[in-house]
């Protein structure tokens, strides 16, 4: 069975704080953010709404995409 990797963007609210991450289990990871299981940035800024994701089969491609997204201007 193939493993998938997800690059995702969470937001605190419309036009709010953004967080970009990567996970091989998007449902579990989103649940962790929403339930404040994940300490740190997302918990501190209440960033828990999944607003975008992309799916990859190759982890290197997912990591490359995550790094590229983090360099973008939020506009």
Word description of this protein:
InterPro entries: GIY-YIG_endonuc, GIY-YIG_endonuc_sf, UPF0213_domain. With 75 residues, the protein is of the alpha+beta class. It has a domain at 1-11 and 19-27 and 42-54. 35% of the residues lie in helices and 28% in strands. It contains three helices and three strands, in the order E-E-H-H-E-H. It has helices at residues 26-34, 41-44, 59-71; strands at residues 5-11, 18-23, 49-56. It is globular. 17% of the residues are buried. The model has no long low-confidence stretch (mean pLDDT 94).
For this entry, give a set of tags.
three-stranded antiparallel sheet; GIY-YIG nuclease family protein; UPF0213_domain; 75 residues; alpha+beta
Q: Topology of this protein?
A:
Layout: E1 5-11, E2 18-23, H1 26-34, H2 41-44, E3 49-56, H3 59-71
Antiparallel strand pairs: 1-2, 1-3
- How many helix segments? 3
> How is the biggest beta sheet arranged?
3 strands, antiparallel
Q: Mean pLDDT across all residues, rounded?
A: 94
Radius of gyration: 12 Å
Distance between the termini: 37 Å
Task: Give me the count of strands.
Answer: 3
SSE succession:
EEHHEH
The largest beta-sheet arranges its strands as 2-1-3
Helical content class: 25-40%
Q: Name the beta content range.
A: 25-35%
What's the overall geometry? globular
